[in-house]
Amino acid sequence: MTRVYALANQKGGVGKTTTTINLAAYLGIAGKTVLIVDMDPQSNATSSLGFDKRSGQPSIYDSLVAGRPIDEVIVPTANERVSLLPSAIQLAGAEIELVGILAREGRLARTLSTVLDRYDYVLIDSPPSLGLLTINSLTAANGVLIPVQCEYLALEGLGQLVSTIELIRDSLNPRLRVAGVIMTMFDSRTNLSQGVVEEVRAHFPSLTFETIIPRNVRLGEAPSFGQAISTYDPTSRGAAAYQRLAAELLRRDGSQPVNC
To answer: CB 116: neighbour CB atoms within 10 A?
Structure first.
């Protein structure tokens, strides 16, 4: 069964794209076939994997709005077993263009339906908002992975996100669930980071991943070279953390790495 996870948090700068790319890379290393879907008009996942978002190449916009076959849009990445459905700047206008389309909330789910059987995992990098693009991401997903930054006000907006997830589950996607909360940008030198982790775990005791993603310079550098951390610096603390996160997700899903 293909597992489709939307990575969502309407708060920006929480490590959502970083988590999408590096989790996908390590799932691929573990022997899983993965499709990254870049649903953010900022196209950060696309550019972080070494693709020019202004190149004019076909993008998810062409499939969502114009109905272009998804096979003409998906591209392989430098990461083994990982493919990308790239974004483009034009996606910013899709929120308006989709308004007049029948069953617009399920547009992405229908777009992906023809290729799901090719992948073990689909990771959807959704925009930092609760607009129509994020609703499409949640409607297409089986579960939601929520990156939460280890900083002040980390829980701000989480209640609204959880309410949106429940609303979409009740009205559009009954299989949707919160699959996990991922603590990111942890700074072991501060009491604040530890306090935030404890607070989040108190609110979501069974959902919060044991793996915590640290603040790591190498994680910030890797996108500028168009690489996942597994390629850019596989010995870094950030790489080790995302490798553990992928292994933990596989255990939660009742799966085991095929190739380590």
So the answer is: 15
Contact yes or no for 175/156 (Cβ under 8 A): no
Q: Which two tokens stand for residue 213?
A: 């993603």
Residue 106 CB partners (closer than 8 Å, separation 6+): 136, 139, 140, 172
Architecture of domain 3-252: 3-Layer(aba) Sandwich (3.40)
Contacts of 55 (CB under 8 A, 6+ apart): none
| pLDDT tier, 260 (very low <50, low <70, confident <90, very high otherwise) | very low
Query: Contact at 8 Å (CB) between 130 and 92?
Result: no
Share the mean pLDDT of the chain: 91
Domain residue ranges in the chain: 3-252
* Contact (CB, 8 A) for 59 and 73: yes
Q: Is the pLDDT of residue 218 over 50?
A: yes
- Max Cα-Cα span within the chain: 51
pLDDT tens column, 4-19: 999 999 888 899 999 9
CA atoms within a 13 Å half-sphere pointing along the CA-CB vector of 251 = 9
- H/E segment holding residue 149: strand 143-149
pLDDT at 258: 52
- Joined together, the tokens standing for residue 96 give 């308006």
What's the Cα-to-Cα distance from 124 to each of 22, 112, 147, 259, rounded to whole Å?
13, 11, 13, 24
Round to whole Å and give the CA distance between 148 and 193. 11
Place of tokens 């083994």: 80
Q: What is the pTM of this model?
A: 0.94
174 alpha-carbon distance from chain centroid: 20
